[in-house]
UniProtKB/TrEMBL annotation:
InterPro entries with a match to the protein in the record: Knr4/Smi1-like_dom, Knr4/Smi1-like_sf
Residues of the Knr4/Smi1-like domain: 20-162, 234-372
Protein name: SMI1/KNR4 family protein
Superkingdom of origin: Bacteria
């Protein structure tokens, strides 16, 4: 099928390609995936490349076969990671299970929204890839209120035209509508200058680096190997110096480095991280406000029940300085004793008495937890019975509209 007329109509809406598109060997891509791809998608990607369609409020980001300059995006790894964790994430919201390629008739990821939702083709809906309808998966919905799956029942380019002209239903967006998107297009910055992609050699495990990181390495590099960070994390609009001034102290450098790579989000539906640099933006609570609120609550609890809360409250020497919370109501913080580089993690558990500080910094504690070591980390086990750690660990990024 000739898609040139439809690509011309798309160009009329958003303008010409904003930059050169990386070359794509579609035969190699389809051979690795084990399926042909829709012609409208191949035509659009060949012309436009890795682009963001829309504006600051809402946009669609194409994730074509390519490799980013910094190596943080590699097409095969993104497909494997997205499919693995998209099978996990909806479990809190629905019992409905969706298959993913390489399962026969499974969903195939190809794009994301600005708020971090994923777009897939339903490859089981038709033997003709040009007829594959698009499905959206969102976790920006309330548990028990909305389904995380939206089946649009139209092919990719038709959906894109509708997004630009009128918008489409989306239970996680304001007003229940995604769009209409601004008729704007740009090269998506994380994939600017991306190189062409080649399939991994036969017999090569795409996620071998993740498996190795379960037992090898330390620090932020190993965390990033286990759970790839967002390509464009949401940090907020402020600066670290503003945050430090507001809190009255600098923070541990390992935490600052991790927060800059991951931004706001949730670790495996348990540990919430606020936008580190958000300063009282409407509808969201940044790190500074989170610390202030939890610290005030801790002081009140300790005043009423000092026997249950042995650690003093910061800024007393060796005081508890909370910075994150869990789905169970626990508070994660530091024993702020000495310079920030030496602060150890401390936990204020909701359902038990407070114990002594843990032996390591936050990044070390997080890594131990991800590796399935609850005894060493002081956190509950991330894995369930009979589950592999890689099947349950993920980071769900939050965008600027998330109400932390």
């Amino acid at each position: 099928m000739d898609h040139s007329a439809r690509i011309s109509a798309f160009t009329d809406l958003v303008g010409p390609p904003p930059g050169p598109a990386p070359a794509v060997d579609w035969t190699a891509v389809e051979g690795w995936l084990g399926t042909p791809l829709p012609g409208d998608y191949k035509a659009l990607v060949s012309a436009y490349g890795a682009v963001e369609i829309g504006g600051p409020g809402a946009a669609i980001r194409l994730h074509p076969p390519c490799v980013s300059i910094d190596g943080h995006f590699e097409y095969a790894a993104w497909i494997v990671e997205t499919h693995r964790h998209s099978a996990i994430r909806p479990g809190m919201f629905t019992a409905r299970r969706r298959p993913f390629l390489p399962e026969e008739g499974g969903l195939l990821a190809f794009a994301t929204t600005r708020s971090g939702d994923h777009l897939f083709w339903d490859t089981g809906a038709s033997d003709d890839p040009d007829a594959w309808p698009v499905t959206l998966m969102t976790t920006h919905v309330a548990v028990g209120v909305s389904e995380p799956w939206v089946d649009y029942e139209v092919p990719f380019l038709e959906l894109l035209f509708t997004l630009l002209r009128a918008g489409v239903p989306h239970p996680g967006e304001p007003g229940g509508l995604l769009g209409p998107l601004p008729s704007q297009i740009r090269v998506w910055p994380p994939l600017a200058g991306a190189a062409p992609w080649s399939p991994p050699p036969a017999g090569t495990a795409v996620d071998a680096r993740q498996h190795a990181a379960l037992t090898e390495g330390s620090g932020l590099g190993s965390v990033m190997a286990l759970v790839p960070p967002p390509l464009e994390p949401y940090l907020g609009e402020g600066t670290w110096e503003q945050v430090f001034e507001r809190l009255g102290t600098r923070l541990p450098p390992d935490f600052v480095a991790l927060a800059e790579r991951y931004g706001a989000g949730n670790w495996s539906w348990w540990l919430d991280m606020s936008a580190p640099l958000s300063l009282d933006r409407p509808r969201e609570q940044g790190l500074a406000a989170t610390v202030e609120g939890m610290l005030d609550g801790y002081r009140q609890l300790r005043a009423a029940h000092p026997q249950c809360y042995p650690m003093p409250a910061w800024p007393e020497p060796g005081g508890f300085l909370p910075f994150a919370s869990t789905i169970d109501g626990d508070q994660i913080g530091w024993c702020a004793d000495g310079p920030p580089e030496t602060w150890r993690v401390a936990v204020n558990p909701r359902h038990s008495d407070q114990g002594p500080p843990l032996p390591g910094d936050f990044t070390t504690t997080l890594l131990t937890w991800l590796r399935g070591g609850p005894a060493e980390s002081g956190f509950p086990g991330v894995t369930g019975q009979g589950l592999h750690p890689l099947d349950v660990m993920f980071f769900e990024p939050f965008g600027p509209r998330a109400p932390w």
